[in-house]
Write a structure and sequence with these properties.
Layout lengths: L1 E4 L14 H9 L3 E5 L10 H6 L3 E3 L2 H7 L2 E3 L14 H4 L5 E4 L7 H9 L3 E4 L14 H20 L7 E3 L2 E3 L3 E5 L3 H12 L3 E5 L6 H6 L3 E2 L20 H14 L5 E4 L14 H6 L5 E4 L16 E4 L2 E4 L9 H19 L13 H6 E4 L2 E2 L2 H6 L5
Parallel strand pairs: 1-2, 1-4, 2-3, 4-5, 5-6, 9-10, 9-12, 10-11, 12-13, 13-15
Antiparallel strand pairs: 6-16, 7-8, 14-15, 16-17
The structure holds nicotinamide-adenine-dinucleotide (NAD).
The site of nicotinamide-adenine-dinucleotide has 33 residues, from helix 6 and helix 7.
Length: 385
Amino acid sequence: MKIGIPKEISKGETRVALSPNSVGTLVDQGHEVFIETGAGEKSYLKDSQFEKSGAKLVKDVAQLYKSVDVLFKVQPPQIHPSLKKQEAELLNEGSIYIGFIDPFSNPDIVEIFSKRQITSFSMELIPRITRAQNMDALSSMATLAGIRAVILAAEKLSKVFPLMMTAAGTLPPSTVFVLGAGVAGLQAIATAKRLGARVEAFDPRAAVKEQVQSLGASFVELEITEDVETEGGYAKEQSEEFLRKEREVIGARFPKIDIVITTAQVFGKRPPILITEEMVKELKPGSVIVDLAAEQGGNCELTKAGSTIEKHGVTIIGELNLPASVPIPASMMYSKNITNLFTHLYNKENNYTLDFEDEITKGSCVTHNGEIVNEIVRNTVQVTN
Ligand code: NAD
């Protein structure tokens, strides 16, 4: 197959969908890879490295779109700044698109894909099952976001992290409170511990208590019984009563906390509000909140998505796309994930045809033959065919 990699056009995006290593893997499988000149620049990957791995460089991006059967991207399609055309319209009809699509926020893209008979796969819809771990770009990116969240907080904090016993006196360790101990939260805990902080965490799923403790953090208990877990081990949307109790318990700890990192999310729902303005006032002056759920509305009611603000003496960080601030590992991990997904979907053994009985194929496919395949997208997104 002919696979194309255009340069990412979103503001602030530094990642590229494929690394030279993965180009080599795909070329060895018999595919041809075409890459826009300079596509890897912001990830410090040179054109010459791509060429050496077997990719063909293409200067004219419109030509690139015309020459390929499959397109790999990071960010959802958008209006191309120099071609003044929606990227989804530049693809050949009937071709294949793989990338983050965010179909719930981009129904217009789903509509274009379906009208143009494009077979599209959304990286964020890959089921979080063991078999799909090496394709799970959401987890790869959340891992990096968890690390970056702690580093950003450390930069803004008016204190240092570790316990210091010096001739000039003893400095107590900073206290970091992580709300939500999923992929990003566990990485945040591990990073804060490595920097010498005292770490506490809360998550409604009892199963993560052991993981939190194994990282050396303490687990905050909430004495309320509510069925908060799905059969697959994910968090369910909690009742207002549960959230009220949670805010009460975590808020009571705030006067002793220096940094709060929030990562709480429930699939397909707006993230819960865990920190109200009144609770922000309870934090020590000079403390920091990093809200990783900022893009979906935030876990703190004062968060401004895409900005860092100061309110009541507390810095509230709502920066988006933290993986783009570490493009070298982010591109490498994303590239591995997308290559593994593509190879799972289309390979010699299955004669390069899709198997819609397969959970990963069925779950990640947004559109095929003009139909919406993923059940949740089909039931949520309205398209006018
Ligand atoms: P995840 O699903 O692995 O973890 C989310 C956790 O939140 C789960 O453990 C869940 O049990 C927990 N949770 C649900 N309700 C809660 C509540 N009321 N209180 C406390 N915890 C609760 O998700 P993830 O991959 O770790 O991502 C976490 C967040 O980080 C998401 O909002 C995601 O969009 C965001 N993220 C942001 C960036 C960025 O650059 N800003 C990058 C990657 C991920």
